[in-house]
Amino acid sequence: MNYAFSVSRGLAWRSLILVRRMPSVFLPSLIMPLFILVATSGAFRGIAQLPAFGGASYLAFVIPLATVMGAGFAGMNAGMTLARDIEGGFVDRLVASPAPRITLITGPLIAAAARSLFTTTVVLTAGLIGGVGLPGLWGTLVIYGLAIGFSAASSCWAMGVAFRARTIQAAPIMQVVVFLSVFTSVAYAPREVLTGWLHHVANLNPVTYLLEASRAAELGTLGWAELWPGVLAVVGLTAGLGAWALAGLATLGKR
Question: What is the rounded CA–CA span in Å between residue 168 and residue 174?
């Protein structure tokens, strides 16, 4: 167990220091959440006058979207890094070593969680600059926790794709699914004001419940009724996509 943890930690550190050598891998996960925060809070601030917003600042409303999107990018980075390692032969060497195979999943998961901590901090700091205060210790911890959970789920999805495709050319598949999962939820408006097919899809989308819990934490209205569906969504997504990643891991050496 200690050996597996040491290997996982080493793989996570290796992934994190790649940021210095290949900043193009990390910068989108930092720039995109900030772009969402600035662009949407300016373009859509007028809809915050709707009764469903309860007078809340639209900037405060979209901060959870930006943190979740940053966490999703952190997860996608884990999958893309793994795909590069498979193409470059690093994974083959690791599989041939005494290191447990599970570290190929746990290492990138740790790295994705660390990246999501950083991007969430940057987004919350940007919110402070924009005049939105922190929601208190409990609310802030919930926002961080849900972001880490979504980074884990996104990592498992992306790694599952990487294990099967074994090429960085599969990156668009990793990205499209994460984007769709976020933007077909309550990304830009509460469920009460959504109409048509988007309303029905958002009701079925687990990311809706994750975002609603994070948003309630940010707006200071978090209660058990908002928290448990968000936690359940994160646990369900991570468990289901973790099984997807593990099944992909089992295919190593079969081709």
Answer: 10
Which tokens is 26 given?
Answer: 């990390």
Q: State the burial class of residue 148 (Cβ atoms within 10 Å of its Cβ: 0-12, 13-18, 19+).
A: buried
Write out pLDDT tens, residues 11-42: 888 777 776 666 666 677 778 888 888 877 66
CA distance 230 to 213: 5
**45-54 contacts, C-beta under 8 A, 24 or more apart:** 47/189, 50/193, 52/189, 52/190, 52/192, 52/193, 53/190, 54/219
- Residue 130 Cα distances to 38, 60, 216, angstroms: 9, 9, 19
Question: For 203-251, how does the pLDDT look when each residue is reduced to its tens digit (9 = 90+)?
Answer: 999 999 999 999 999 988 899 999 999 999 999 999 999 999 999 998 8
What is the pTM assigned to this prediction?
0.91
Evaluate whether 120 touches 144 at the Cβ level (below 8 Å).
yes
Closest CA to 122 of 68, 67, 73: 67
The helix/strand count (H/E) of the chain reads as 10, 0
